[in-house]
From TrEMBL:
Protein name as it appears in the record: Reverse transcriptase zinc-binding domain-containing protein
Residue ranges the record marks as coiled coil: none
Domain Reverse transcriptase zinc-binding: 149-235
Domain of life, per lineage: Eukaryota
Amino acid sequence: MKIAFYLLVKGDQLWVRLLRAKYRWWNAHVSPTVQSRCTPLWRGVCRVWSDVAANISWNIGDGKGVRFWFDSWLGSIGPIVNSLLNGRQLVYVEASVSDMMDSDGQWRWHRFKSLLPYAILLRIATVKISSNAPMQDFPRWNLTSHGQFRVHSTYSVRMGVQFGPTEPLWKAIPDFKGIPRIRTFIWLACLGKVLTNEVRCRRHMTLDSRCHTCGFEVETIDHILRRCPVAYSLWCSLVCPEHLGQFFQLSFKEWIFSNLTNFGFYVKDGTEWELLFGSLIWLLWNHRNEHIFEPKKMHWEPILSHGKRLQQECRSLTILARQSSVVPALARDSIRWEKPPEGWCKLNTDGAVMGELGMTSCGGVIRSD
Ligand SMILES: [Zn+2]
């Protein structure tokens, strides 16, 4: 996929010119095709092309290489043919973006105004083509915020894995009020980046994926934090018997999410449960590491009492943070408008944009005293 994307964006490089000339592929809007006696590289490009094309949008330069209806050039809206009003007939089907503008760079509204919703028309109105310094249209990769191709984002697409920021778990973890290193650990655990034996095996760092504590055949992060005998007996001593079934049946991410946000639903004394829960899974991970790497220096303190001590530290930290946040609030009160020097006027401006609709507004006030 990386090579397929670079075939679009690196048109000035020799290897791209060579490949495109060899297989006579000049039009980026036409899918490349497998030809007799083509190389495995070209076969691969043809195979993944539909995935690449589905994740590309265009930054408009001169608008000549982007199809008005069928290419994605209005950000997250996608191809605007999908927004066509019911019962309307498509016109200027093969028009490029520049075909819909006159020589002064003004939109030819009469060609499409009656076919699209008002919100889409507002978005179109925000796009301008500079006739002074014409640039080529440039594709960007939709799965990254900066538009550059990244293998990680591509892997998500190919595997059907959703790492989207909209998943509520990714909002719940930053809201965790505990010690920052525990928050980081929870984040890594949910991303599957903690070096358990399962992960180490996948990265060819070891051949043994078993749990060193109990001998279970695959040591996953879920196993260490929830199902290994040490963890299992700990949770059984804390969780109400009527909730034990649900507690152990949830998927790993659901389990983390519900314990960070349900505030003690599972336990008898749920006061600041999320702080104790975070501390305990952090200590279970440390316990596993001490067991493997420093068995002689194993922590003497039971995990539960150590966890309660950490919970207390987190609580103190929260109170401290709340107290310290009072100071900047007082400081903010002293910020005020100051009049300009004699003979000058001051212009204060502000603006706002309304999300997907793209409605914008701005204003300003000129004052001298
Ligand atoms: Zn185990």
